[in-house]
Structures are given as C-alpha cells and as structure tokens.
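Q: Predict the assembly, please.
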Amino acid sequence: MVKKEPESETPLLDELEKGPWPSFVEDIKNAAKKSPMSRDLLRQLELSYKEKIGHWKHGGIVGVTGYGGGVIGRYSDRPDLFPEVTNFHTMRVNMPTGWFYTTERLRKVCDIWEKFGSGLTNFHGSTGDIILLGTTTDNLQKTFDALSDAGFDLGGSGSALRTPSACIGMARCEWACFDTLQMCYDMTMKYQSELHRPMWPYKFKFKFSGCGNDCVAAIARADLSFIGRWRDEIQINKDAVKEYAASGLNIRADVAALCPKKCIDWDDVRKELTIHSEDCTCCMHCINVMPKALRPGKDRGCALLIGGKAPILKGAQLSSVLIPFLEEEKLQPPYEFVCDLIEKIWDWWDENGKMRERVGELIERVGMRVFLREMGLKPVPQMVYEPRSNPYFFWWPEEIGLEITKDEEEDETNE
Amino acid sequence: MVKKEPESETPLLDELEKGPWPSFVEDIKNAAKKSPMSRDLLRQLELSYKEKIGHWKHGGIVGVTGYGGGVIGRYSDRPDLFPEVTNFHTMRVNMPTGWFYTTERLRKVCDIWEKFGSGLTNFHGSTGDIILLGTTTDNLQKTFDALSDAGFDLGGSGSALRTPSACIGMARCEWACFDTLQMCYDMTMKYQSELHRPMWPYKFKFKFSGCGNDCVAAIARADLSFIGRWRDEIQINKDAVKEYAASGLNIRADVAALCPKKCIDWDDVRKELTIHSEDCTCCMHCINVMPKALRPGKDRGCALLIGGKAPILKGAQLSSVLIPFLEEEKLQPPYEFVCDLIEKIWDWWDENGKMRERVGELIERVGMRVFLREMGLKPVPQMVYEPRSNPYFFWWPEEIGLEITKDEEEDETNE
Amino acid sequence: MSKTDIGPPYFKELVPPIIAKNYGDWDYHEIVQPGVLKHVSKSGDELYSVRVGGARLISIDRVREYCDIADKYCDGYLRFTSRHNVEFLLSDKSKLQPLLDDLKERKYPVGGTGHSITSIVHTQGWVHCHTPATDASGVVKAVMDELIDYFTSMTLPNQVRIALACCLNMCGAVHCSDIAILGIHRVPPKVDHERLPKICEIPTTIASCPTYAIKPDPKRKSVKINEEKCMYCGNCYTVCPALPILNTDNDGISIWVGGKVANARGNPRFSKLVIPYLPNTPPRWPETVEAVKNIVEVYAKNARKYERVGEWIDRIGWERFFKLTGIEFTDKHIDDFFPGRATFRTSAQFTYT
Amino acid sequence: MSKTDIGPPYFKELVPPIIAKNYGDWDYHEIVQPGVLKHVSKSGDELYSVRVGGARLISIDRVREYCDIADKYCDGYLRFTSRHNVEFLLSDKSKLQPLLDDLKERKYPVGGTGHSITSIVHTQGWVHCHTPATDASGVVKAVMDELIDYFTSMTLPNQVRIALACCLNMCGAVHCSDIAILGIHRVPPKVDHERLPKICEIPTTIASCPTYAIKPDPKRKSVKINEEKCMYCGNCYTVCPALPILNTDNDGISIWVGGKVANARGNPRFSKLVIPYLPNTPPRWPETVEAVKNIVEVYAKNARKYERVGEWIDRIGWERFFKLTGIEFTDKHIDDFFPGRATFRTSAQFTYT
Ligand code: SRM
Ligand code: SRM
Ligand code: SRM
Ligand code: SRM
Ligand code: SF4
Ligand code: SF4
Ligand code: SF4
Ligand code: SF4
Ligand code: SF4
Ligand code: SF4
Ligand code: SF4
Ligand code: SF4
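A: Predicted assembly structure:
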C-alpha cells in the first residue's frame, strides 16, 4: 500500500472544504488554530456528521448582569470527548441598523471575540444580530463589558422584544416610502428594556421594509411588520418610459400584463403608459421593472401588519393588515401614535396571552374583533382578503340588548 | 267613519298577494277553501308574521310502515288556536329523475293529496323531492298507500341516503358527458333500502351533473358529486367559429381572455381558435359562450368529488376531488366500480363516524390519508389546490420501521 | 299494505317523444328570448322549452293549472328545473307563441334563462319548520316582486343566483350563491331545565355545539351554556327541543354574496358575509328587498360581461365592493371561527378606495 | 460594570459619506453586472455596491479579511445584507474593477443580485442547536457548490430565494421561500420518565403539543405520548429536554417550494410541501442537492420572465409541477392538520397532465 497523508481528524467535514462556494469548515479550522474551543467544536461536529445527530443540549440559564437575554446557553452532551465545549454559549449582539460597519468598529468586535470567545461568528443571525458563536459561562460577562465599552450592546432572546431590523431603505434605495433605518433605530433605543429583559408570554419581533418588496422579509417573520406604501399616484416619467420602450423592454408583456390588478394601460403606438391608480395595490412590480421611469407616489407612509411567525405552535402565520396606512408624520419622532399602539398591544397580549403564545396566535384564539375593540381600531376591508363565509359570528351584548353570562371556570383545552 | 270591508283574518299576509310575482298566499288561501288544515296553516302563519316567530315544534317520530323516513313530523305549538294543524306532517315523495312529468301522473299526485292532505305542496323541495306539505298522523299511511299504487315512492329523510338528483343531462343538454339521469335513477333504485331506512351516522347525498356547469349544484350540496368531464380535446367546429366572429362575438375578450388557464389562442386575422388542451381544466366557459362551435371532447366521463355539505357542524364544505376521472364504462350498469366504492365509503363512515357527522367531516377529522388508505385510492395532485404548507404531517409506522403506540382511552373532545 | 321500495317512476316513461328520440343526441341550443330555450338535435329536431317562474309553495289547483297548460300546448309533457321553475316542453313550434300569449294572460312570468335572475331557491320558514329565524316564502315573494324585470330579461353581466335559507342549516345552496339571504338568530338558547332531562340526550346535546359552549350541569341533570361562546347557530335546538332559540326581537336576516357553483371560469366558492343583520320586517321585509336590489344594481352597473358576482369582486377587490355598495364593514366580517385566519389579508396589496 | 441598554451603534455614524450626503435622495439604480449595483442620487452621485457571497459561519480572521478589502477599496465602509451577503460600498468608480479583480483572486463569489440565486438564509444545525434534524451549514455549502453559477449570473426568470431551517422552529423565512430545505424528525420523542419530573413543568409540556398528543401520567409524575397523534414537531422537546426526539436513522430533510415574501405581482405566501423526506447523508447530502437543482432547472426552463416559482406553479397548476419535476405525490402532501381542508380542490377544474 502507498503511504497516506497523516489521517485527518475530520474526514467527513473535509469533504466540505471542496467546491467553489466559501467553506465554513475552512473557517472553523482557521479558528481552531487559535481556539481550543473551536477545535472541540470542529471535532464534535465531525461526530455529528458521523452519527447524523446533534450533540448539544440546553441547560441552566446563563447571561450577563442586569439582562435576562442576549445569550443562548448551550452544553455539549459529550463533555467527556469535547471538554472545551462543555459550555459553549452564543451571544447575540445588536447589529448596527442596516448592517452598516466601518472597519474600525468591526475589527473591535473581532478583537474582543478573539480574546473572550471561540473566534467564530455568524454575520449575521437570521433575526439580524451579530452572532458570537460560543464561549464559556465565565467569559460572558467579560465579553459583554468589552462590547459595551466598544459601543455595542446585546440583542434579544427569550420572551422579549427581539432585535428589530430594517431594509436598507433611504440609505441606498430610491423606493423607501419611510425612513426604515431611523425608525428601526429609534424603536430599538426606546425599547431597550423590553429587548433585554424578557417578561412577556413569548418573543415579539418588529421589522421595517420601505416598500412592498419587503427586503427584510417582515411579513413572514415579524409580529409587527411596517411595510412602505403610498396613497396617491405612481410618479411617471414619460420620457423615461419611451426610452425603456426604445431600448427593447416589452412593456405590454413584462409590465402591464403582470400587474396583478391589470390597471396599467400601454399604448404601443404613442408609447404611453397610463396607470389607473385607484386600482393599484402598490405591489411594486411595474416600478421594479422600470426604475428610471416609475416611482412610488408622493403621499408616502406604511401599512402596519400584525402576527407574522413561524409554525410553532398552531401553524405559521403571515402578518395581516392592521392599519392600511400610517402617514409619514406618524413615522417620525416621537412616534406617539405608533408607540401608544405598540404598548397597548403589548399590555393586552401580556395580560391575555398564554405562555409561548405569540400575539398573532392570541388574536386568532380570542378573535380579531376582540383585539380590535381593545385597541380601539376600526375594522376595514383591507384587513381581509374576503369576508367570512361561515355564519358563526358573534354579537356584542349591547348590540342585542342582552347581558351575556360568562362561564368563569372555562376549560381551555377545547379552544 | 266610512264603513270598511269585512276585516281580513290575515291582513299581513294579504300584503303578499300584491305585486307581480306569483303569490304563495294566493295558493294557501286557495287550498284553505277546501282544506281546514290549510286554513289553520294560513292563520298560524299570520300569527308568525305578527309575532315574527315560528310556531312549529318537532316531536315524536312519525312515519309509514316499513320505512324509517320520508316524513317530517311537525306539530303546532298553538294547537289551542290552530287545532287543525295540531299535527301537520310533510311527506317527501321521490320525484321522477330530471323532474319530468306527464300531466296524467302529476294529476294523480294532486288527487291523492286533495284526498289525504292539505292540498299544499312544494314543487319541489330543495333536495328535489315533491313535498306534500302537511297532513295528519293518521293520513300518512293512507297517502303512502295511494302514492304507491300510483307508482310513486317516498324520498329520503333522517340519517339515510337522501333522494339523489341529476341535471337534465342527455335528455336535453348537448354537453352531458355521461348519462346523469340514468345513473341517478339506477342508483336510486339500487339503494332503495338505504334511502328508506336511516341507519347511518347522518344523511348522505348524491348528485349528478353532466358537466362543469353543475346545474344541479352538486359540488355544494352532495356528499358524493359526480361532475361530467372529458379527457381529450374540446371539439372545434372551425366554420361555426368563423360565424360567431362574423356575427360580432368578441372572441378575444369574451372567450379567450376569460379562460381561467389562458389556454385559448385567438387569431383575429385568420379567425382561428386554438386550444392548448393539455392546459384546459374543462371549466366550460368557452363552450358555454360558443355552443355551436365548441363541444366537450369525445373521451367523456366524470370526476368524483366527496364531502359537500352545509355548515352544521364544523363549517360548510364544498365537495373536493376524490377521483379525477371515471371513464364512461364505469358510469354504466352494473356500475361495479362505483358501487363498490360507494359501499366501502358507507361502511367506513358508518363504522368511524360520530353521530351527526357527515362523511366530509369525518375525513377532515381523521385525515384524508387515512380515508384514502382505507379506500385503496391513490393520492393525486388533482385532489388539492396546493400541497400542505404546514410541516405537521405523519408517517405510517412501516415507513419509519416503528410500532406506534396508540392511546386507547383517547379523549375525543380535543380533536 | 302497499308495495315499498318501488322507487320513483322511470323518467324515460315521462319524457316527451322528442326527448326519447333524441336522448343524448342534442347538438346545440339557443336562447330564443328570455325564458325560451331552443335545443336542436343532430337529427335536426327542435325542442322548445318555456320556463315559467312561480311560488314554489303552491296548491294542487295550481299544479292542475300547469297540467292544463301542458295538455293544451305540450301534449301533456312538462318538467320542473333544479331551481323549481316549470318548463313547458314543446316539439311543435307553432304552439310556442300561443303558449306564450296564454302565459302572459295568466300573468305567469316567463324567463329565468341566460343572464337573468332566475327563481330564488328557498326553504320552509315559518310555514313548516321549527328552527327558522325568518320566513322563506314571504321574503322571496317580496324580493322577486322587486326583481321580476331581471327574471324576464337577460341584461345582467351573467346569471345571478339568489337563494334563501331560514336558518344556519342552510337547506339549499345558500352557502354558494351569488346572493344569499340567510335567517340568523342572535341570542343564545335559553335552557328549559325542566324539560331537558326528560326529552334530550345530554352527550348528544353537548356534542352538537360547534364552539363547545355547552357543558353538562350534573346537579340539574341538564346542561348549561357559556353564552359568551355561543354564536346562536341553533344546532343544539335541532337536537334538543328544550333549548329554544327563536326570538321575536333579535332574529333576522343576513346577506352574503359572491358564491357560485359552476366551474365556469372561476372555481366554485362560498358566499361571503356582507350584511350581518337586517331586521325581520314582515310582511314585506323592505330592508332586505332594498339590500338585495342595491347589490344587484351595483353589480349590473360595474361588472364586466360574463363576470359572476364573485368574479367581479375578485377583480375589483372587497374594499371596492364595500365602497360601491355603501355597505358598512364591521368586525363581524372578519372571520374568527377557527380557522378564520385563512381569510386575513396577509399581504400589503390592497387599494384605499 | 459596564453600561447597559446603550443599544447598537448609531448607523448614521457608520455609513459612507456618500450615503450620509444622499440619504433619502436616491433617484434610480442599475445592476451593472451580476453582483454590482449602481445607485444614482438626484445630486448625480453614484454609489457602487459589490455583493459577495460567503459562509455565514465565519471566523474573525475572515471578518478581518473583509475589513482589509473594505479599507483598500471602500475607505473602510462595508455592510451586510438581509440575506447575509457582504456588500462593499464604493463611491470611487475607479476602484470598482480592481476590487472585482481582487475578489476574483480570493475566489469570493460576486453576485446574488437580480434574477439570481442569492445566499441561502440558514440556521445553526449541528453546529450550535439542540433540536436540529439536520445540519445547516453543511447542506448549504453542498447546495451552493452546485448552484454557484446561478449566484454569479442573472439568467433565471426571477430571483429564487432558498432557505434552510434545521427543525420546525424555522428560524428564518423558510416558510415563505421559493425553495425551502427543512429538517424534519420522523419519530415521536421518547419520554425519559426519570428526568422528566425533575426538569420539566408538566402543564407547560402538555400545552406545548399542537396535536394534543401529550397527556399527564400521574402515576410516574411524568407525561405519556399518544404516538399516533404525534407528528414529531419537537416542540415538546424545546420546552422539556427529557423528551429527546433526535434520531440518527429517521431524521432528514423535506423540500418545500413556491413561497414568497415580496408583494410584487402575486401576494406573499407560504412554501408548499413537495418532497416529504430525503435522508440525512452527510457530508454532502447528494439527494438534497439533486432535488433542489432539479426544481431550479425545471423552473428555469419552464417559467416565464418575472414569474417567481410560486407564480409559475399558479399558472401551470400543481398537477403539472409534479409531472414536470417527476416528484411523486403522496398522502403527505394533502393537508390534514386542521384546517387543512382549505387546500382541498373543491372544484372540478384541473388538468390530467
Ligand atoms: C334547466 C337547468 C337544469 C335542470 O336540470 O333543471 C339548467 C339548464 C341549462 N343550463 Fe344551467 N341549468 C339549471 C341550473 C343551473 C345551476 C344550479 C343552480 O342555479 O342552482 C347552475 C350553477 C349556478 C351557479 O354557478 O351558482 C347552472 C349553471 C349554468 C352555467 C354556468 C354559468 C356561469 O357562467 O357561471 C351555464 C352556462 C351558461 O349559462 O352559458 C348553464 C347552462 C345551461 C344550459 C344552457 C345547458 C344546455 O345546453 O341546455 C341550460 C339552459 C340554461 C339557461 O337557462 O339559460 N348552466 N345552471 C337548471 C335551470 C334552473 C332554473 O330554473 O333557473
Ligand atoms: C324541505 C327542505 C327545505 C325545502 O323547503 O326545500 C328541508 C327542510 C329541513 N331540513 Fe334541510 N331541507 C331540505 C334540503 C336541504 C339541503 C339541500 C339539498 O339537499 O340539496 C341541505 C344542504 C345540503 C346538505 O345536506 O348539506 C339541507 C341541510 C340541512 C341540515 C344541515 C345538514 C348539514 O350537514 O349541515 C339540517 C340539520 C339536520 O339535519 O338536523 C337540515 C334539516 C332540515 C329539517 C329536517 C329541520 C329539522 O331538523 O327538522 C327541515 C324540515 C323542514 C320541514 O318542516 O319540512 N337540513 N337541507 C329540503 C328537503 C326537501 C326535499 O327532500 O327535497
Ligand atoms: C440588499 C437588500 C436589502 C438589505 O437591506 O439588505 C435588497 C436590495 C434590493 N432589493 Fe430586495 N434586497 C434584499 C432582500 C430582499 C428580500 C428578502 C429576502 O430575500 O429574504 C426580498 C423578498 C424575497 C421574497 O419575495 O421572497 C427582496 C425582494 C425584492 C424584490 C421583489 C422581486 C420579485 O419580483 O418578487 C425587488 C424588485 C426587483 O428585484 O426588481 C427587490 C429590489 C431590490 C433593490 C433593487 C432595491 C433598490 O432599488 O436598491 C435592491 C437591489 C436588488 C438586487 O439585489 O438585485 N427586492 N429583496 C437585500 C439583499 C439580499 C441579498 O443579499 O441577496
Ligand atoms: C440564531 C438563530 C438562527 C440562526 O442561525 O440565525 C436562531 C436560533 C434559535 N432559535 Fe430561532 N433563531 C433565529 C431566528 C429566528 C427566526 C427568524 C427571525 O427572527 O427573523 C425565526 C422565525 C420568525 C419567528 O420568530 O416566528 C425563529 C423562530 C424560532 C422559534 C419558533 C417561534 C414561533 O413562534 O414559531 C423557536 C422556538 C422557541 O422559541 O422555543 C426558535 C428557537 C431558537 C433557539 C433559541 C432554539 C432553542 O430553543 O434553544 C435557537 C438557538 C440556536 C443556538 O444554539 O444559538 N426560533 N428564530 C436566529 C437568531 C439570530 C439572531 O438573533 O439574529
Ligand atoms: S424593501 Fe423596498 S425600500 Fe426597502 S430596500 Fe427593498 S426595495 Fe428598497
Ligand atoms: S405597483 Fe403593481 S398594482 Fe400598482 S400599477 Fe404597478 S404593477 Fe400594477
Ligand atoms: S350540468 Fe352540464 S350537462 Fe348538465 S344540464 Fe347543465 S350544462 Fe347540461
Ligand atoms: S373549457 Fe375553460 S379552461 Fe378549457 S379552454 Fe375553455 S375556457 Fe379554457
Ligand atoms: S333552513 Fe333551517 S329553518 Fe329553513 S327549512 Fe331548513 S332547517 Fe328549517
Ligand atoms: S346555539 Fe349553537 S353555538 Fe349556541 S349553544 Fe347552541 S349549538 Fe352552541
Ligand atoms: S431551526 Fe431549529 S434546530 Fe435550527 S437553529 Fe432554529 S431552533 Fe435550532
Ligand atoms: S413532538 Fe410535537 S407532536 Fe409529538 S408529542 Fe412532541 S409536541 Fe406533540
């Protein structure tokens, strides 16, 4: 037999160093050179690859002084084999809004993590935080102190407000109908305590997208989604339209025919585009295809949607319309209307929600009508794709001039 | 004061004799001339109009010898005021399939009802029966005997097979893809016992429509809906197409643009219509608009759908696809495949259904996968608008090589 | 004793000869004029069907009058449709006009074909049922008096199917109608603790409630109702007469639109709630008549050719529908019967109108 | 002790001067080439953004390398995107080509813009989570190795967003992705009756089960699971570690398609199940790679311009999708989680293909 290279500790993971896409295995190995933690992480991961099973358990709550969250405690279930990751907790660091960095600030984070952690990170976590991936219980406070000194703070975890995020918006995008970044930042600052000290039935997420393209996927993931819209007409630059036509864009097929409301007329002779704005749903398609010719209207603001979340427990929900339009004024400091509403929602949810019940699930359980009434909001058709088709609806006692007896010892399992 | 006409017993109902649409009050009054029952019915109805409330109660079960259904027992809650309708039961008489009559047969029914009943009827009830509206308990058997002698039989009621119905189909309609009338009649005859002797968890309805227009509203109302379809191409008569065009029909706008699958090409120069049949869903629209030019394909049969029903208990259901295509052979005597399946469905439902649970609700409760497996039917995409979006699905024990423990003392209320 | 299980008369013995001859052999049809269909068979034979509307609740003398007409013009053949119209079947074209003249004289409305409003499928109401929240025949008569011109013409964008059911049992295809008139109760049943133990089976009664509002009341051997959870469906009353739900002041009518059954173009679908409550105002229910008429007129004015009511609303959106009809949108329109969320607008797409 | 509640650094201190200057004043943009965006402000200023894909799980040395690059070409400014790509922000056009050359040398993929496949949003997997049914980073690496040409080009009908979550918690927008790769368990948890009473709260554990499969087991002060009702979501394990659900042989991957988030054209929507199970085959998960690739290719070949995956399927119908991809339709595709019925095809409209 021909003599082989010294055998790798991680033959399976090594396979993932091959191929053109950047390899996380390369990075773990890289970190492992300096960090024994990362080396044991690598070895434990190899075991998972071999056994096709994870090797982490959750355990006692860990954290930093004064906060109830921001750290995900994790413990190896094979500390015998991988002692360096006996405890290996992740810290969530609130990213700068819009994920903007100067190299100077970014290097600071790296230095801190080199000193106190595994040297591994996620840029970023899927909520948006900087994820500092793995350190010991002892080092948590130290890391936090160093981060704080460098001007960083932790993000959310547990039954708290989660780190809000926003699309790049006005920083670079011509379509932003409100200032997503500023509002996201302001809300983050205003609700620092809610972010750091879990005290609700479950988690709560805000996301801000400047237009219907929803580049931060708010509608799918946020309990409150702010999605930019306008109320007047799409702005049309007629010359630019003609240029698009001249340059070969098939405006009839690629723009008009794909408008979901078929509210665009295209005159192929005059090369003129007319939009019946009263039918336009601000879907963004036509603007997306012709960015030089079409722009959102001037009366801008956002729609507020509520209830987005992943499947656990009663099935996934997309956010649904709560307020069709918040005017620009309401989306600027001091955000009085918005904050009042947010706090009202939190109070109601806090009081009525079961443990691990997101606000959308609570609304589903007790009925939108109850929620709207509590919030003092008016029902409008924009809230629904269509009205109910079942005849199982309720009347308020005062509508039928009756007192309704409530069964206090209600068994909840039936709901 | 001026002298008035003798005051009417029914001032409110009299208002409904006015106006151009034929008046039921006129007919009740007419019947009341000969029948004291009808007179008391009229007077009780006037009371309902005054008090805005019904005056009937249900009570003891009534019927005819040998049958468990076909009669709806009804009792006045004011026999003190309206003694003649103290009991006032309705008989459901199975209509001739397609609601065809000779005057001779129809007059016989009238004569019988003149003799034994109120003289009031519904032509027809919304399941399709002839409704003989109101007679005494005593007269039920007599009416039945006379009807039977005249060649009529009762329809269904209670937890039984209900009177099947069919669109006019081949008797008059050029679009019938199978012989709805004959099949409906044959099924009615084959299942006489199921129709007359309630023995199931709840009611069960068949309806037969010869094409997607569904002129008997099967999909909304039948536990099993047979809806005609074809599998090959729509037959096009090119000359007739040209004639429609010439006569001014806007084929692009009124036909092609309204095709739900946009699978019709219209060549306005050559006046030619092309249908991409592989995309056609047999919706019928184009054929409806151009009956002289377009006809269903030649390979005809029907789709079988299951579960249609009104809201009680868990919400209304439209029938949903169970078998996308039953070939013509299967829709002819002896209907072996269809009858085997029907009986299998009944057996399974009878065994597993709760009281007052329609088959569609049972399927919803236990899961379509269980039903399909029990029936030996293959799941196909035509059964759904789209696949599931929640990740809450089950594996069969044999698929994961496991024995699954079943909790026998299962509490049903949670389901 | 008479024979049982003989089933209905065989239809082939009841069809006119022209149908027997051309059974399954029809080639095409035309609507000659409102209410008059002409079906042409491949053999060239022509069948004329004349459709007449009526009160479904009729006396035997009315039926006999139909028979007289059929004897005179149709060799004694007639049929009824799946929506309870009468159809006089003629193979002799020369008798068509005389028949029409005769019908006119009798003030029978001829129509209901094509893009019209045909007869309203309906139910028993106060005439014969024990659970109604409104009457059936009276409301239908009042509405049809108002809409009769749509019956006798074909000027609408497409057919408009109207149905009425007097309670949530929805006897008829009310739940899938262009416009549905539905009787509703609005107060929970009152438990008659005295009668209940005697005449009702407690487990069945409890199981009859879709929202689990009914609980056993072991002390009284009866049940109790959590009124907050009750949405007045009346199903418990159907299974247990000791739970009366009929109510003079609070029963009434709700209006639903946009359902359909046919597969033509858009899929079959349920009707959706548009007016949660209109009072019971016998004998002529003016609020209901007005509401239905308004919807028909707004539809007639705004829909495109071939659009059914629901397809029209699909295109314009519900927000526009409420605006055009001037109907108020309320919290009742938002589905909160599990799984109502499917109807929530999980999209930032909508118009402000 | 350090300061708490200081929040994140203020972003306006971290944006390049060109952004500070033109904030809210951008006029239009162009995609100069795959991975290179040019945003032009009303003032005429031009900002170039160069988007680079990477393994989201990176070492601090990698981050420092990004910093080196940003220092060299971008005056020290960079950002990350909402899908975890790096964007180098240049106001000096002359540095664009040198930057691109440098990136090429480093083998960094430039792309992810326009009608491409951008980076796969994903999660922790075996690297750091306790409930995963599969790994995250490894699957993503294997899939992106295969799809990288779609990252660096813009040849698809529209963007295709792929996401991966390693368990049903779905950390990420997996439930609304064009193509979702989802780790699933397939056997019920085993109750560790010894530990359970010590470390779990029984009512919370019972309430954690969406299908009510968990019941108290008072004798053992533990719980029991009705395995027939369990669909392996793992939620009970999240709240109670004494209900281990991870399983070497039966855990694996499911594939979902047709979801989207943007309001453009069609409404936002969930992804739908297409492949219920593929085995866990580390290190390179060939079955999953092949499955994703197949779907992308069939979509690329058949969809029309601007159609997202779900919009394409809307047009052709799911029956056609299954046929074109050759994927088998099973009983698992039919929704039976209440209220699954909403997905049943209550229509006689479909094709046979
Ligand atoms: C006679 C009857 C069948 C029967 O066995 O009794 C019948 C007969 C015809 N129907 Fe129908 N339909 C009949 C109830 C129905 C129903 C059921 C119902 O309303 O409860 C429907 C489904 C309604 C719905 O979707 O809610 C129905 C939906 C159609 C359609 C689809 C229209 C559409 O565009 O949505 C057509 C096609 C058309 O009209 O062009 C149609 C077409 C036809 C044709 C043209 C078929 C033919 O070629 O003979 C017949 C004459 C139509 C006409 O009146 O203009 N028939 N038709 C029923 C007459 C009812 C009445 O008295 O008014
Ligand atoms: C007579 C009729 C209405 C009419 O005026 O035409 C009718 C009348 C009654 N129906 Fe119905 N149903 C009638 C067709 C229907 C239909 C339509 C159909 O069959 O196409 C439906 C909807 C379709 C369906 O079956 O889902 C219907 C759905 C119901 C229901 C709800 C069933 C459900 O599963 O949701 C009930 C409640 C019940 O069974 O307890 C019900 C119950 C009743 C009862 C028996 C009420 C009761 O509990 O006593 C009514 C008796 C009234 C009476 O005094 O005669 N009726 N019922 C129809 C039967 C006439 C006939 O045989 O031709
Ligand atoms: C940089 C980023 C925002 C950020 O704050 O980080 C961004 C930036 C832009 N998006 Fe986006 N989108 C970004 C995530 C998203 C997301 C969220 C996601 O994928 O998780 C979505 C929703 C995806 C979905 O529907 O599932 C998203 C849906 C769009 C669309 C809608 C496309 C469609 O037709 O469905 C557009 C319009 C277009 O591309 O023409 C769009 C357009 C744009 C424009 C053209 C806006 C502009 O004028 O600057 C930007 C460049 C697009 C490009 O890459 O071609 N952006 N965009 C995100 C880049 C992610 C990445 O690294 O690949
Ligand atoms: C780190 C991260 C995934 C990643 O690799 O990026 C993550 C990781 C975990 N998520 Fe998540 N979630 C992460 C974003 C999300 C998102 C996406 C988002 O926020 O936009 C979702 C879906 C949106 C939503 O909130 O519905 C999400 C939905 C969940 C759920 C299900 C929540 C639900 O209501 O359905 C759980 C279950 C739970 O909370 O017990 C969960 C639980 C968890 C836990 C804490 C599991 C646990 O019980 O211990 C994971 C810790 C992993 C670890 O070891 O660090 N994670 N999780 C993301 C947070 C990083 C960050 O802060 O930036
Ligand atoms: S969501 Fe709209 S405003 Fe925000 S970055 Fe995307 S396209 Fe621009
Ligand atoms: S934004 Fe969308 S809905 Fe509005 S006109 Fe453009 S394509 Fe149509
Ligand atoms: S359902 Fe079809 S076949 Fe039957 S009568 Fe109506 S149009 Fe004719
Ligand atoms: S039957 Fe319907 S789907 Fe088929 S071609 Fe005609 S209009 Fe299109
Ligand atoms: S709808 Fe209700 S009240 Fe009317 S007949 Fe049917 S069961 Fe009776
Ligand atoms: S009326 Fe309906 S909701 Fe109310 S208690 Fe009776 S069954 Fe339940
Ligand atoms: S998806 Fe599941 S396994 Fe993966 S990180 Fe999130 S909670 Fe953990
Ligand atoms: S895995 Fe999910 S379904 Fe199974 S018992 Fe646990 S919580 Fe219930």
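Residues A 167-169, 173, 175-176, 209-211, 213-215, 228 surround iron/sulfur cluster (ligand 5) (CB under 6 Å). The radius of gyration of chain B is 26 Å.
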